[in-house]
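Weekly modeling sync, notes
Attendees: S.R. (lead), two postdocs, one rotation student

Agenda item 3: backlog of single-chain predictions. S.R. asked that every request posted to the team notebook include the full sequence so nobody has to chase files. The rotation student volunteered to paste the first one in as an example of the format we agreed on. Action items at the bottom.

Example entry:
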Amino acid sequence: MLWFGKRTASPAVPVAAAQVVPLELPVPLDPALFQRHFDALLAGAAHDGGIESYLAALAAKRQAFAAACARAKSVALQLDDVAELLALVFTARRKLYPAMAELGAAHVAELMAGLWFGEQPPGERLQRFVDAMPGAVTGDRASIRAAAKLRRATWDFAAELLHYPDTERYPLMTRWVWDQGTQSGALREFVRGGDAMREVPFSNDPALFEGARRWLVTQLAAQGIYRDEALWIDLVQAQAYLAYFRSMTEGSLGADFGRGVPPQEQLKRLLGIDAAPGIRLDRVKKPVAAVHAGTH
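Predicted structure, as returned to the notebook:
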């Protein structure tokens, strides 16, 4: 078990050829709920520069990931390269860099190459990336909890590493899209009566995410959207998850997600587009020693 149309193509990069075959969803998704989240997305964007500004920001993020992936085909990425990508992944950027530094640049470059260019199914590549992270230092509860948080952040980073260089091939499989373990995520917000269901029978299989994505493409087509569908899907899913998040007094994203900030800013933070690629690298939490040594 895992832990967790296309008229405008994403940038061409040399990624692995494995295709995700969609799974028929065990519970149907509701077009009326899609419409609700879609309308809320457009209404919110209208107060914040318009939906085109969001699409442009996501396209810039996609290009940054695609450029790193293409570069990794011929040279090993350095930790500075990793930090630039981490800055664009909200749920990982404050948690993951120290572990990456501990593993070392060569090992991290090998893991990223395996994720991007490996021949194994995408779910296996994601899990291998997660399993490479350091485990609990001791057997006490705090150490075990810290190791689990690290694995969750690593999963999200790996999911975005896989998705953004080739958004047409791989769906976004972060925990906020769906997490079987916590039974939470954007996909639940498209299930009629999902808030009353004790358990939604969705797995963390990539095929499940791809099945949901195919359904979302159909809903976008009904809105007359046939370009940049992959980016639209990321936006709509983020809008759906935030509807859930704001309905809860506590959320898994934590205090630094910005309770009390405008919904549009929360949307941009969740998607990692609250600053342009290469800007605000200080958002990546690094070991103090590394900062003083100038190794970041």
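Discussion: group reviewed the output briefly. DSSP finds eleven helices and no strands in the chain.
Action items: rotation student to repeat for the remaining queue; S.R. to check formatting next week.
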